[in-house]
Design goal:
Elements lengths: L2 H4 L3 E6 L4 H13 L2 E7 L7 H13 L6 H6 L3 E4 L5 H11 L6 E4 L6 H6 L1 H21 L4 E7 L22 H19 L5 E7 L1 E3 L18 H10 L6 E5 L11 E6 H14 L16 E6 L4 E3 H12 L4 E5 L8 E2 L4 H7 L7 H14 L13
Parallel strand pairs: 1-2, 1-4, 2-3, 4-5, 5-6, 6-10, 7-9, 8-12, 9-13
Antiparallel strand pairs: 9-11
Helix pairs in contact: 2-3, 2-10, 5-7, 7-8, 9-11, 9-13, 11-13
Length: about 375
């Protein structure tokens, strides 16, 4: 019997597992065949069909001589659960018992900057209260490792570009502030019980693209709030606007439009595997912490900024669709340039994001053409 077969699979719970990032993180976890994935999602902005597709990819990737343990790693324990209801969360943990879940990757959140300025209480409840409830239930069940999905929006308008993790946190939108608050709570918890808790916050820049199979991808409900899926929906004919509205061209950037740091969603997903490894008992990543608290934050980005107009041009090449755009006024809460300094994550976690913008656009368009109406459409690629 191989040593890997002797070791039971590690149970890792992924919140927001059916979403765009969550489904690709689950894909990366299953690809290792080291983990048993538990997904919780309330399907506010996702569909359970994504998990069916991810599990299909995992089964298809199994070797012909797969062990029972390997086959088990390809099946997802999926729960529909609302994180703002602690009793629902507790029921999931009770199924596995004390110490039964090794760690949590907490991705679930509302994430639209503009919407957060209109309904801030909803954002604080769903993103901050839910994180507190989740941590309290984790503590009850001796599950004290968390990888937290944070965001580059925690920096607000950063004083230095590219942005190092040491930058002061000064979010400008309620959404960004929910991420700062949740990071603060995690840091406080790790400081209060340093021998018990370990946590890493991953500050995502702009994930893009999809799994190259076209089986899973970004499928926002309603009109996409992010630029790349919006362009994909325009090119496929789902968004009828003939003209893209570009918010401002008078920013202090090379072409005047906002600059963002895009990275492939599968590169981002691999960052979560590295973060889980860093929560291992023998990990050295916390050795440089200034106090006993074992808490760290890392940027996940490429370190190369792309302007709105550059993205439009890349999608024009990928899709063959002649996008028209018009410049309108700036949008409240938008920051001119969010480009990561990824040095710390490269050095301490071994993180890299090699996929280029052309690959991201190609994989996004492959997903969109195979699934013009997303997971729910009549033409969706069969799982």
């Amino acid at each position: 019997m191989s040593s890997s077969e002797e070791t039971p699979l590690r149970r890792v719970l992924v919140t927001g597992g059916a979403g765009y990032i969550g489904s690709h993180v689950i894909y990366a976890l299953q690809e290792t065949r080291r983990y048993k994935v538990i997904s919780v999602d309330n399907h506010h902005n996702s569909t359970p069909k994504s998990l069916v597709r991810v599990a299909q990819l995992a089964r298809d990737n199994l070797p012909t001589n797969a062990s029972d343990r390997d086959r088990d790693s390809a099946e997802i324990d999926a729960h529909q659960c609302d994180l703002t209801k602690p009793d629902e969360v507790r029921r999931v943990f009770e199924k596995y018992g004390k110490g039964g879940i090794w760690g949590v990757i907490h991705i679930a959140a509302y994430k639209a900057v503009g919407e957060s300025t209109e309904i801030p209480l909803t954002y604080y409840e769903n993103n901050v209260c839910a994180t507190v409830y989740l941590l309290k239930v984790m503590a009850e069940f001796d599950c004290t490792r968390m990888v937290y999905s944070s965001s580059a929006t925690v920096y607000g308008t950063p004083p230095v570009i590219p942005i190092p993790e040491s930058t002061r946190l000064q979010a400008e939108s309620p959404y960004g502030k929910t991420k700062v608050m949740s990071e603060t709570i995690l840091g406080d918890l790790c400081a209060a019980e340093p021998s018990r808790w370990r946590a890493i916050s991953l500050r995502y820049f702009n994930p893009a693209g999809a799994h190259p199979s076209g089986l899973i991808g970004e499928d926002p409900l309603g009109r996409p709030g992010n630029l790349l899926p919006l362009l994909a929906h325009m090119a496929i004919g789902r968004v009828k606007d003939s003209t893209l509205k570009v918010f401002g061209n008078d920013y202090p950037t090379p072409d005047g439009t906002c600059v963002r740091d895009y990275l492939h969603v599968l590169d981002l997903a691999k960052g979560h595997l590295l973060a889980l490894d860093a929560l291992e008992p023998g990990s050295k990543v916390f050795d440089s912490c200034p106090t006993e608290a074992r808490y760290k934050a890392y940027n996940l980005g490429k370190g190369r900024g792309m302007s709105v107009l550059k993205i439009v041009d890349a999608m024009r090449k990928a899709t063959g669709f002649d996008f028209k755009y018009e410049i309108i006024g700036r949008r409240r809460g938008d920051v001119p340039d969010l480009t990561a300094d990824p040095t710390l994550a490269e050095k301490e976690l071994g993180f890299t994001a090699p996929a280029d913008l052309e690959t991201m656009c190609r994989d996004l368009w492959n997903w969109q053409t195979k699934n013009p109406y997303g997971y729910e459409g009549p033409d969706a690629t069969s799982a």
